[in-house]
Design brief:
Elements: H1 14-32, E1 35-36, H2 37-44, H3 48-60, E2 64-69, E3 79-83, E4 87-94, E5 98-105, E6 110-117, H4 122-139, E7 144-152, E8 155-157, E9 162-165, H5 176-184, E10 188-192, H6 193-204, E11 213-218, E12 222-228, E13 231-232, H7 263-267, H8 269-280, H9 288-296, H10 300-324, E14 328-332, H11 339-352, E15 361-364, H12 370-384, H13 390-403
Parallel strand pairs: 4-7, 7-10, 11-14, 14-15
Antiparallel strand pairs: 1-3, 2-3, 4-5, 5-6, 8-9, 11-12, 12-13
Length: 404
């Protein structure tokens, strides 16, 4: 996310002001389409001539197209603007068991997707991803492709763009970005899965007025994406948010990171399956989705395993509340399919550990495409600005009025 450096006293150039105005107009079109030039000027506070210049530039760049013509009681009939849905991008969600490659338009609408087992070696993974990307581009020759966004179950170094920490994926350090870019000739943006889910909430969810939020992703492991004071936190080497590898029980199960009793060894999908096998004595290999199905059919061992998982999730969330004080915690994962049953357990665990004030709102994310939708935002923010949120638009508008 963009930060303002108040130690830099250099006055903003006219080019900077144009870039800000362009971002404001482009985001207003995205969020309010179809919208007329007159309404853009009214909402943004920019002069009509400025809006006209910017929209013509966006049309020439094929980001925006003219839509239908409106009707007015008198005067010139306005032409409504909308984003050009022929502008497309490709997104990738890498998980330890399965990788998904999808094609989306500029509005975040998915047009096609394919999934395959995740290869055990990073070079093979990059090759298979590149192959699927090239096949999708070949199948849609009329689209203009902007880039590729990749969601990772681990961390990468933003300075080197190399994967550096992915214990559940079991891939070593590797130049994933460079490998895919070379094979596809498209720019690649990498992001941790939990951070991608933060972007999905900010861009496509209902987090417009939320400035302090944590997204918790629960799958084979547990990841957290941190959004504080309106900014996505990455930290040194992009390692901010690895709460899943904080030990809650030094004598607990061994973790893939080498530690013991880490949060994810107690509250992840994998942990729930281990709870189930321990309670039932069964050696049958089942998936987490099958575990949920058994709980839905009132299998007492399955319910007990998921309740134990829910208590562990809530217990770990106390770290987030005590250390970060978010106003909202959003949970992403298959576990949320039975939120009405197990969500209250998490909420009670968090509530019991509150130091002061009210507990944060805890809710499941909408839908099951958070990682992919987040990677859409990851690519688009290079043109639309850091978040494209309504709150940011309002802030920039106030700044622009002060400048004028």
């Amino acid at each position: 996310m963009r930060r303002i450096d108040f130690t830099n006293t250099q006055v903003a150039s006219s080019e900077t002001a144009r870039d800000i105005n362009r971002s404001v107009v482009l985001n207003l079109i995205r969020r309010r389409q179809p919208i007329s030039r007159a309404d853009l000027a009214r909402v943004s506070g920019l002069q009509r001539s400025t809006v006209s210049l910017i929209t013509e530039q966006l049309i020439n760049e094929r980001w925006v197209i003219n839509g239908p013509t409106g009707r007015l009681p008198r005067g010139r009939r306005p032409t409504f603007l909308r984003l050009n849905e022929r502008r497309a991008l490709l997104v990738v969600d890498i998980r330890p068991a399965q990788t998904t490659v999808a094609l989306a338009d500029v509005n975040g609408r998915f047009l096609s997707q394919v999934a395959f087992p995740t290869p055990s070696e990073p070079a093979q993974g990059a090759q298979r991803i590149s192959q699927q990307v090239n096949e999708l581009m070949k199948a849609h020759p009329r689209l203009v492709f902007e880039g590729i966004g990749v969601s990772l179950p681990g961390r990468y170094d933003e300075n080197t763009s190399r994967l550096i920490f992915a214990p559940n994926l079991k891939w070593g350090e590797f130049d994933l970005k460079g490998s895919i870019e070379k094979a596809t000739k498209l720019r690649v943006e990498l992001e941790n899965a939990a951070n991608a889910c933060v972007l999905a909430e900010v861009w496509f969810g209902h987090a417009d007025q939320i400035r302090d939020m944590v997204v918790v992703t629960i799958s084979e492991g547990i990841g957290t994406g941190i959004f504080l004071n309106g900014q996505l936190m990455r930290g040194d080497h992009g390692m901010a948010g690895e709460f899943g590898h904080v030990s809650l029980d030094p004598n607990g199960p061994k973790c893939t990171c080498g530690g013991r009793g880490c949060w994810e060894t107690l509250g992840s999908n994998r942990a729930a399956l281990e709870h189930y096998h321990s309670a039932s004595g069964s050696k049958e290999r089942i998936t987490f989705q099958e575990l949920l199905a058994r709980a839905d059919k009132d299998d007492t061992d399955a319910i007990e395993a998921l309740e134990k998982m829910a208590h562990a999730i809530g217990h770990g969330m106390r770290m987030l509340v005590a250390g970060l004080a978010p106003s909202e915690i959003v949970v992403v994962g298959d576990f949320t399919a039975q939120w009405s049953r197990f969500g209250p357990i998490i909420e009670d665990e968090v509530k019991s550990g509150i130091l002061f004030g009210k507990p944060p709102r805890i809710r499941p994310a909408e839908g099951n495409m958070a990682r992919l939708r987040g990677t859409v935002a990851l690519v688009l923010q290079k043109h639309f600005g850091p978040s494209g949120s309504a709150e940011e638009e309002a802030t920039v508008e106030r700044q622009q009025r002060a400048i004028r």
